[in-house]
UniProtKB/TrEMBL annotation:
Transmembrane region(s): none
One protein family per Pfam: Lipase_GDSL
MF terms (GO), sorted A to Z: hydrolase activity, acting on ester bonds
Protein name: SGNH hydrolase-type esterase domain-containing protein
Record-linked SUPFAM superfamilies: SGNH hydrolase
Origin organism lineage: Eukaryota, Viridiplantae, Streptophyta, Embryophyta, Tracheophyta
Amino acid sequence: MVGPKRPQFVLFGSSIVQLSFSNGGWGAILADVYSRKADIVLRGYYGWNSRRALQVLDEVFPKDAASQPSLVIIYFGGNDSMGPHSSGLGPHVPLPEYKENMRKIALHIKVLFYLNVMFDVHSNPLSEYQSLSDTTRIIFLSCPPVNEAKVRENTSKYFSELVRTNELCRSYSEACVELCEEMGLKVVDLWTAMQRRDDWLNACFTDGVHLSAEGSKVVAEEILKVLKEAEWEPCFHWKSMPTEYGENSPYDLVASDGKTTINPSEWTFHREIQWD
């Protein structure tokens, strides 16, 4: 590990996460915004559903690790929401199971106060639900919409029939949002946020499912909004976090007066969007 040690933000999910550093992706945006403030760690797995996520949860987030992430942003749902295949194979996960899988992921990462109400602590001691860290925060991303016409255009001969519909995405998105409301978790409703754009069908996707640069801008904006508004201590909004080695230095660029230097550690003029 290189130092100094920074807060660690882990992105965990399927292809929406794996590709988040591609094509102007939202992970790359966060890495830029949080440069010198936090390390963005990518744990994305193309094609995965919530069942496969549970299989590796202890490996991706070991509870005996020397240090734990400050923030985990989680996305599964797009593959779970695909229609079932007649063979029983494929990524489809029934909606009730999907919701419970996402609950288990949240419980592994962080035990919440609501457990004292939802469970009988005598028959289900809270030690069974030991979390990674009392200070690890979670944001869920719900299932975004799809451009069904573009999905059909991009169907490959190598795959059996793929059933992806906006209505299925809506139901899985709603289940994720409902779960987060039950558990007191922060959530970004991507199904709704994407469709606020009049041109979302053509602007937000590369293939009808995966995000274009414009689609990623929506995701990044919504995540930053949550981080700004969350009443967390410490605050993880980028403007509230210290900048690593942000002190003035005689080695900085010399100002026009020829006597002082200009500290560039907070410069953001290079960004296409001045994120709030």
